[in-house]
Amino acid sequence: MSSPLLEIKGLKKYFLRQQAFWQKWTGKKEYIYAVDGVSFSVNKGETVGLVGESGCGKSTLGRTILRLYEPTAGEIYFDGEKINDLRGDELLQLRRRMQIIFQDPFASLNPRQTVEKIIGLPLKIQGMKGRELSERIDELLEQVGLARVHRKRFPHQFSGGQRQRVGIARALAVNPSFVVADEPVSALDVSIQAQIINLLQELQEKMGLTYLFIAHDLSVVSYVSDRIVVMYLGQVMEMGPAEEIFSSPQHPYTKALLSSIPRIGKKNPSTGRIILEGSVPSPLNPPAGCKFNTRCFIKNKPAACFHEPPPLIEGAPGHYAACHLLG
Amino acid sequence: MRTSDLPAVRPKYFEDSDRFHVRLREFWHEYKKNRMAVAGLVIVIFFVLIGIFSPWLILHDPNEQDIFNRFQPPVWMEGGSWEHPLGTDELGRDLWSRIIYGSRVSLALGITVAFFATTLGIIMGLVSGYYGGTVDSIIQRIVDILLAFPYLVFAIALMAVLGRGVFNLFLVLLYKEWVTPCRVVRGEVLAARESEYVEAARAVGASDFHIMFKEILPNVFSSVIVVATLRVAWIILMEASLSFIGVGVPLDIPSWGMIIADGRGYITQYWWLSTFPGLAILLTVLGINLMGQGLRDALDPRLKE
Fold first, then answer.
1. B-interface mutation test, from A92, A112, A191, A202, most B Cβ less than 10 A away
2. Does the distance separating the beta carbons of B197 and A109 come in below 8 Å?
3. By the 8 A CB rule, do A298 and A326 touch?
4. How many CB atoms lie within 10 A of CB B32?
5. Residue A298: inside a domain, yes or no?
6. Which of A316, A300, A319 lies closest to A239, judged by CA?
């Protein structure tokens, strides 16, 4: 693999919790630690899968990378250029090179706009008009497996899969090199999921795209990803090549996640399944030390688990895990 | 099978299903299910037609005095005549003609104030809901202040200072009326702002202006239409109240509120003087309210209680 297209270093995104106005004077501020110091890189042409439970900060991370949210701290490098502070025209230029595909094609397409308008918007913003614009819309529709006749239709006249195709066409309209796919198939029927994933892979080959593929469905991620990043409560627990993560997970959280994948043909489905106790702690008040310590199933944990955040350690080449027990 | 493999030719109706006239037909189909709403629409159209064609409907100049024929009863009572179908007032002015003409002021003010107030309210609501933070706090505190004030008292005071007049009345009504659409729009914008289609528009670099007016506004418009319609009825009542008190339209423009006020002193002997303009107000407001509720049910099923 070649040089990194995207590199993030110590990226943090905290949200200030909604306060009543009098709390502004008391000075007490509560933060939601959505993304809390994440570093990784994505190489040109590869697909990095980002997995974790709901609310672990996957989507926030994806949106922060795209500068839809302002990062609280940390650095984002895109193609060697720091993009944290881009404004105005420079930001608009960036929007041309990185795009996003949303999870819910019912929510991400404006119900009052025709497909033509939805796909045309990014192009218009980048200054395209007239015949060129019209031809480009046709071309895009064809690329994602729709046809010219769909141009004047509204989102509600499409099926879920077709809508997601419209969403993909919108993201690809400006010819980006990097696309954040934020759970692009989790709102679709299983039969449609395969179609959309195949389409995404086909487009990746054709256009040389790089994906950050966010998902909570591990089977989907294992199918599309070259590398996988496992997140929990805003931090990276483990990352490495996809096959390695699946064949030899290091972090207890990854082990628990993988054991939850249903398998066909297993005699006793519950054997070997790790059931985690409780639910994800509130990101308002994350546990000290290792963030996973409240739900970790390992007995007799060392004291460090409760005091010291574990560093990401490279166990095998390119395979990192953050756990004191692996030190 | 990929979608592009499907035949490119589709039945005509499918292609057309979002043309304006088709949507209008669908809307009408939904609207007419509600009988009361249709009745409301008929009443409103009736009064609008009266307002438009009043110069041809009156029998006398509405301000023409005939002191020898004062307090004439309506035509069906003893002593009544077709000369004055609803009788005459204490100056001998023809009540029929005055009520017909009164519809003009009521409807014209009601519709114009509602239009401008809604436009202003939409802009304030969009800005308030979309930007949030300090801008939102400032606009919403202004709204709170306006809502907390006893409006009628304030309007009387303002009109007393400004003096009678249609334009002054317009200003005084506008001053408060933008508040309701503003609140409604803000609430809807708060929800729409977080939607993924807005985020998608931001991801491709759309401007705030584009997002507010092209992405969000079309999605909140149906509730705005409903609110605006219901405000018309409220404005007509306010105008009537202010004119009744004597701080509304000038004396030479007959308005329903003023006609009621004129007849108030004689209500025990000559009941018709106040009753007929009162009925006119009642019917108009009722019609608009029924229509507004019908619009609400037809446009936005979510708003049904």
1. A112
2. yes
3. no
4. 13
5. no
6. A319
Alpha-carbon span B81 to B94, nearest angstrom: 11
Q: Coil, helix or strand for A195?
A: helix
Window 64-83 of B, Cβ < 8 Å to A: none
Tracing tokens 């009941």 back to the chain, one arrives at B271
Q: How many domains does chain B contain in total?
A: 1
Residue A35 lies in a domain: yes
Residue A316 lies in a domain: no
- Whether A255 maps to a domain, the answer reads no
Output the pTM of the full model: 0.81
Q: Biggest alpha carbon distance in chain A?
A: 69
| CATH code for the domain of A56 | 3.40.50.300
Asked if residue B24 belongs to a domain, the reply is no
CB contact under 8 A, A91 and B205: yes
Domain holding B287, by residue range, is: 55-303
The residue ranking higher by pLDDT, B243 or A271, is B243
* Those residues with Cβ within 8 angstroms of residue A307's Cβ, 6 or more apart along the chain or in another chain: A288, A289
Task: Find residues 200-259 of chain B whose CB sits inside 8 Å of chain A.
Answer: 200-206, 215, 218-219
In chain B, which stretches have pLDDT less than 50?
1, 10-15, 304-305
Residue B47 resides in a domain: no
Q: How many domains does chain A have?
A: 1
A103 contacts in chain B (CB < 8 Å): 196
Decide if B2 is inside a domain: no
**pLDDT band, residue A86 (cuts 50/70/90):** confident
CATH number reported for the structural domain that contains residue B217 in this entry: 1.10.3720.10
Q: What is the pLDDT of residue A63?
A: 92
Establish if B72 belongs to a structural domain.
yes
User: What number is the ipTM of this complex?
Assistant: 0.84
The domain in which residue A123 lies consists of: 4-243
Longest dimension (CA), chain B: 90
